[in-house]
Amino acid sequence: xxxxxxxxxxxxxxxxxxxxxxxxxxxxxxxxxxxxxxxxxxxxxxxxxxxxxxxxxxxxxxxxxxxxxxxxxxxxxxxxxxxxxxxxxxxxxxxxxxxxxxxxxxxxxxxxxxxxxxxxxxxxxxxxxxxxxxxxxxxxxxxxxxxxxxxxxxxxxxxxxxxxxxxxxxxxxxxxxxxxxxxxxxxxxxxxxxxxxxxxxxxxxxxxxxxxxxxxxxxxxxxxxxxxxxxxx
Length: 233
Ligand SMILES: Cc1cc2nc3c(=O)[nH]c(=O)nc-3n(C[C@H](O)[C@H](O)[C@H](O)COP(=O)(O)OP(=O)(O)OC[C@H]3O[C@@H](n4cnc5c(N)ncnc54)[C@H](O)[C@@H]3O)c2cc1C
Ligand code: FES
Fold this sequence. Notes:
By secondary structure, this protein is of the alpha/beta class. The chain folds into two domains: 84 residues, Beta Barrel (Elongation Factor Tu (Ef-tu), domain 3); 136 residues, Nucleotide-binding domain of ferredoxin-NADP reductase (FNR) module (Rossmann fold). It contains five helices and 15 strands. The strands form three sheets. The chain has a seven-stranded antiparallel sheet with strand order 4-3-7-1-2-6-5. α3 links the parallel β9 and β10. The longest helix is centred in the middle third of the chain and has 11 residues. The radius of gyration is 17 Å and the shape is globular. 43% of the residues are buried. FE2/S2 (inorganic) cluster (FES) binds next to loops.
């Protein structure tokens, strides 16, 4: 059980929750959260948005029953968190280009933060796309070299990748497929898949995803994959 330190509404339906936690956490990993008994049946996967010793932060969108219950929790309440699970984004030392869409920006902040800690001279450019209102943008601006925002349009139309950059993306599958197609094959591209999950630990096959090397479990083999594994390019 973790104790909630804060659970704030940033804009309607978008919440940022911090809980107490200490352990090793990699960018792109996720936790299974629950704050209910039997209904809904399953815990819900939420990515690590930020972490520093003693404080783990999630950024989440209310879309249904589970996230609705999470949004009503107050500081001091308990929430069950299991994890961290999944492989996470690989560590890179080349320049980084990050593309996020909507709540898919959630795992990208910790990714950029860790990248800049390890590569203070490395260049990190961030593209963030939102349908109506932006959120979490100032945090990216405080650590990245460049942040390009699109609200209401199509963020991938702005994306121009440089030859020395590794690209990492998370968001709606259409956005990631479009990044996977548009970026030259010479650039490495990593995508973070967000399929429905049941157990989160590789035990139920609930999250199977077709890849070039056969069926893989998003919760255990992913959620991060090389683009050519999951998209036709
Ligand atoms: C590895 C991983 C990391 C994630 N990280 C985050 C995060 O950081 N922040 C965040 O807000 N959400 C994240 N999600 C999505 C989140 O888990 C779901 O939105 C949540 O489980 C919905 O639960 P619910 O009970 O509120 O809604 P439900 O009642 O279960 O569903 C409501 C609606 O959302 C759809 N939905 C549910 N889960 C998903 C999904 N995984 N992908 C697409 N549509 C879905 C359902 O089909 C339904 O239409 C992540 C998912 C995965 C697999
Ligand atoms: S969610 Fe059970 S195997 Fe992935």
